Amino acid sequence: MPSPGLSVSCEFNTAPVTVGSKAGRAHSCNSEMIAASFRDCEAWRAEGLKLSTSSNEACKLYDALLTQYVKWRNDETLGGFEGCISAIQAADPNFVMGHVISTGLELVGTTSSTRLNERLASAVRRTVELANSQDISPRERLHVKAMELFSHGNFPKACDVWEDILVDHPTDMLALKFAHDAYFYMGAQTPMRDSVARVLPHWKPHMPLSSYLKGLYSFGLLETRFYDQAEKVAMEGLTLTPDDAWSVHSVAHVYEMKAEVDKGLKFMEGREKDWQVSDVLASHNYWHWALYFIEKGQYEAALQIYDDQVFRRCKATGSMLDTVDASSMLCRLEMEGVCVKDRWQELLQVTQPHTDDHVTLFNDLHFLMVSLGAKESGTSQRLLEGLQELAKEPGDNQQHHLAETIGVPMCRAMMEYNRGNYSGAMELLYPLRYRMVDIGGSDAQRDLFNQLLIHAAMKSENKHHQKLGRCLLVERDAVRPNSPLTDRLMQRALALHV
Q1: How many CB atoms sit inside 10 A of residue 326's CB?
Q2: Of 359, 403, 356, 361, nearest to 383 (Cα)?
Q3: Are residue 130 and residue 242 in the same domain, yes or no?
Q4: The domain that contains 239 carries what CATH number?
């Protein structure tokens, strides 16, 4: 889960509003810290990554912002994301790569759509105009092109451009990270892995941020089911950088996918002090911790994490990663028979303003969970109809192209399930089971829909569906043996269909 964690308003000619967990707070940039720690114009040039600005301060601030992005952390000593974005603006208002990283971070945060947000659309146009009016390098021009493509929802073409950059500039961390995020949004698991594998030999230990490639590569490995290798690579990353929250996150995924629950609980608790400083990813790592408790049937412990960490942070940040995690947790708990009380209503206050966004199908499906859970039928219907309308003329938007064949049927399946029409939900969802990967996210995140399919099959009055449900459970047990959650579902299926 890449930078869906970021919630950031980045246009240069407006004051930035929110980044990570620093919503609404002003930050000043620590110029002494910046001067001492980060790369100036000459350092970037020496690495073959020339930045078209004469301002050393702007170059260092770009590095400071990139570093926080890679570390998933608002660094208070640097003024956080907000402080660095404001300071880049002051240092050189016409610095193209300053615009690329600032506006790009807002775009990959997926909290806002250029279709609806004129300020964001204007920031993209301004970046393009600046690039066209300046003599910048071919690499920088490609960065602008990729950001513009991404802003139109053309994730595949944006990735192609970032990969073009990496062929000639394999140590361009911004291109690597933006591509990693976009592959994630498309469920492009193998490209996400191979994108990092291709550049690994070019990164040397002395290079800034080099150790963080371990976490990036590990995540691609685990999403392509190389769990043992993924764990090994992530642990290598943690040996180099113990507070690398993304490597911690990769290991959490491995234990989740292998149902090694006690191992996962021990690992997350033992390293909590290291990973919780990465505030942009902390809520998501707490979400992984809570999944182990749900797996074990320890629902009160999971709810405590939801209340104390996941929802609290989601409400404070508006981060999309935090928001979908909160949505998913409540849905998983309800499927387990847990009463979540008024939590759906509270979460609706966060998700409802995003009903018309339609930035990614993955986000839409999570917003729908909340409106259904809160029994807000008008919002649910509006989301579905909005998606149906965009599917008619998707243009270059890859997500809208998928809306008709995947997004809309999945939304309708969830609505039928919510109405108690389990047979209808099954008919819609079952044919999509091997295509759900296209909505993006990770295997662990999408497992929610696998569980929903199993519940629909078990609750359906159709005998064939009930048999399919038992088949799905056998299949689940084969790839994740020793899963307490699967065992509970099997017992429930037997009890229902004796």
Answers
A1: 28
A2: 356
A3: no
A4: 1.25.40
Shared-domain flag, residues 76 and 172: yes
Range of the domain at 258: 210-277
Can you say how many angstroms the Cα of residue 177 is from the centroid of all Cα atoms in its chain?
12
List pLDDT tens digits, range 179-234: 999 999 999 999 999 999 999 999 999 999 999 999 999 999 999 999 999 999 99
Contact criterion met (CB below 8 Å) for 82 and 23: no
Is residue 397, in this structure, part of any structural domain at all? yes
pTM over 0.70? The answer is yes
Distance separating alpha carbons of residues 84 and 68, to the nearest angstrom: 10
Which of 277, 308, 325 is the last residue in one of the domains? 277
The answer to whether the CB of 40 falls within 8 A of the CB of 66 is no
Q: Which residues have C-beta within 8 Å of that of residue 407, sequence separation ≥ 6?
A: 361, 364, 365, 387, 391, 399, 439
**218 near 237, Cβ under 8 Å?**
yes
Distance of CA 194 to the CA centre of its chain: 19
What pLDDT, in 10s, does the model give residues 361-412? Answer: 999 999 999 999 999 999 999 999 999 999 999 999 999 999 999 999 999 9
Residue 171 shares a structural domain with residue 255: no
Q: Supply angle C-alpha 326, 301, 258, rounded to 5.
A: 75
Cβ-based neighbour number of residue 441 at 10 Å: 27
The total number of structural domains in the chain stands at 3
Residues 91 and 163 in one domain: yes
Indicate the pLDDT class of residue 494, thresholds 50, 70 and 90. Answer: confident
Query: Vertex 147, ends 91 and 18: CA angle to 5°?
Result: 60
Return d(Cα 45, Cα 51) in angstroms, integer.
7
User: What distance in Å separates the CA atoms of residue 448 and residue 28, rounded to the nearest whole number?
Assistant: 41
CB 270 within 8 A of CB 304: no
Residue among 99, 106, 201, 199 at smallest CA distance from 140: 99
User: Tokens 């790839």 identify what position?
Assistant: 479
Assess if residue 312 is contained within a domain. no
Q: Which candidate, 297, 296, 463, 293, places its Cα nearest to that of 309?
A: 293
- Look at residue 316 and tell me if it is in a domain: no
Contact 20, 279 (CB under 8 A): yes
Handedness of CA 363, 366, 371, 372 (dihedral sign): positive
Specify whether 359 is located in the same domain as 486.
yes
User: Which residues have C-beta within 8 Å of that of residue 116, sequence separation ≥ 6?
Assistant: 356, 357
Last residue of a domain, one of 247, 277, 307: 277
Whether residue 309 is predicted with pLDDT greater than 90 in this model: the reply is: yes
Looking at the structure, do residues 177 and 214 belong to the same domain, yes or no?
no
Location of structure tokens 């490597």:
247
